[in-house]
Structure formats: structure tokens, C-alpha cells
């Protein structure tokens, strides 16, 4: 069975990827792709992993978990998609001694022990630390921004270190990553890779994020255009989306507010430039399949 683990990062798509999948739940079920509701597995999976860490997994743990999550669809499903933006840690656990998600390797190790014979794949979105950390602070219950950073110098934060750590620990694990800022242009591609659906297959919500970044007039024109050109290749579709985004973009949406207590414009600019360089390093990491627009 394919087990797709969408593990965040938090403050990237605000659960919209999961919502889009649930919106297509019945259609996907007919294709053998199960998208269980998060209430059915998030707490259960966490408790199962913690129990396995203490007592080791018994041989029936995997099937028992899936039977509870999938119920009557267990026998029909060949792919299960599990999503939890907090899988590697809650906001106050995201940074420690300069590392992003310091518990990630241990948590993922337990997950793979639970599904030893399954085709497990990790999906993960990354975001510019200049906006990621302030957004993380807003979603937390912490009173001080320094409680997120702790002793970490923000200029030393590297997604490439996080990805490299996972790749070295699990060289056989396919890791699919993408930049959060690219999501509007690759949304349908991410969904289809998860579900192994061919490109022409209709997915409700294919362009949900794209509709957010352009005007209503622009999106209406875009829908009319692709309606008249239903056999566009992926490359052609990207070119069309780029053209419409350039002409009808909503600057109030695509320009992020980069504000954090005590950060000046110089630091924010430096973080952004370092992030751009860091993304290029992520591309080069073995086992990482980076999804580009």
C-alpha cells in the first residue's frame, strides 16, 4: 500500500491541501485512494507512535490502525493520504539549536517502523523563514517571539539542513518538497502526484490557490481560456498561468507582510536572499523530488 504522509510545514497551505483532497474524497475512493478525515487518525496515530517508542510495535499494529481509520474501505484502498502539519512538532518545537524540526528523524523513524513494508512517501512544503517564523508565532500560544527562536540565529536557519538530515537518515524514502510561494501554480500537480492520477483527470479545486492571487475578472478569463483549450500540456498550462498572473495579479495577496518583533528591513531582506539560495541547495539533495512551477 502507498502511504502518503503530508507533514506540513505548518503555516504553509493552512490545511487547504487536505480540504481539497476531502472535497474529492468520493471520486478518489473509486480510484482506490483513501482520504480519511483527520479526526479519525491524528490523535490515534500520535498515540500509536508514542506507544511504539515505549513498547515496540506488535505485528498487528499497522493493520489495526488502518482498519480503524479506513473502516469498510480498508480492502479496496491501495493508497492512503494522511496529513498533519504538526507531525514533526508544535510551534514551540520547530526550532532548537539552529535546527528546524529537531525531532523529525525520530518521529519519522517510528512512522516507518509502523509501516515497514508499505510504499511510504513524504510530502512537505517549505516557506521563507522571514514570513514562516512570524506566522508560526501568531499560531502559537507563546507570549514572546523569542520563545520561537530560542537561541537560534535566524540567519542560520536552513531548510536544506532539514531535508539533508531526513535524506541521510532515510535514503530510500521519496521526499517531495515545494516552495509555499509556488503552490498556486503547482496545486494540481501536487494533488495528482499524491493520488497518481493522470493530468487530464478533473480534480475539484485544481486552481483554488491560483484564484486567490489574481482578480475575479482574471480568473474568469483564465477558466474560459482553459475551457477552450482542454488539452494543454503541463508546460503550456504553466505558461498560461504565468501570463494571467502577470496581467491580473493581486499585489495585496502575493506580497507578504514580513514583520517580526525586533526585525528590521535589512534582516528580512537578508533572510529572503538566504532562503532563495537555500532552496537551490534543497534541489540537489538525494531522494528529494522538488516540485517546480
CATH topology: Rossmann fold
Total of domains: 1
Cα-based radius of gyration, to the nearest Å: 20 Å
Strand count: 8
CATH architecture label name: 3-Layer(aba) Sandwich
Sum up the overall morphology in one term.
Answer: globular
Estimated structural class: alpha/beta
Strand content: 5-15%
Count of separate DSSP helical elements? 14
Helix share, percent: 40-55%
Strand order of the largest sheet: 2-3-1-6-7-8
* Biggest sheet details: 6 strands, parallel
Level-1 CATH class name: Alpha Beta
What string gives the helices and strands in order? EHHEHHEEEHEHHHEHHHHHHE
Gap from first CA to last CA:
29 Å
Unreliable segments of 5+ consecutive residues: none
Name the average pLDDT.
91
Protein model, in words:
With 293 residues, the chain is of the alpha/beta class. It has one domain (2-204, 263-290): 3-Layer(aba) Sandwich (Rossmann fold). The chain is 49% helix and 11% strand. The chain is built from 14 helices and 8 strands. It has helices at 16-23, 25-30, 42-55, 61-70, 104-114, 129-139, 146-149, 159-169, 183-195, 208-213, 216-228, 234-248, 251-254, 265-283; strands at 2-6, 33-34, 79-83, 95-96, 99-100, 119-126, 175-179, 288-290. It has a 6-stranded parallel beta sheet, with helices on both faces. A two-stranded antiparallel sheet has the order 4-5. Helix 8 (159-169) packs parallel to helix 14 (265-283) and helix 11 runs antiparallel to helix 12. The model has no long low-confidence stretch (mean pLDDT 91).
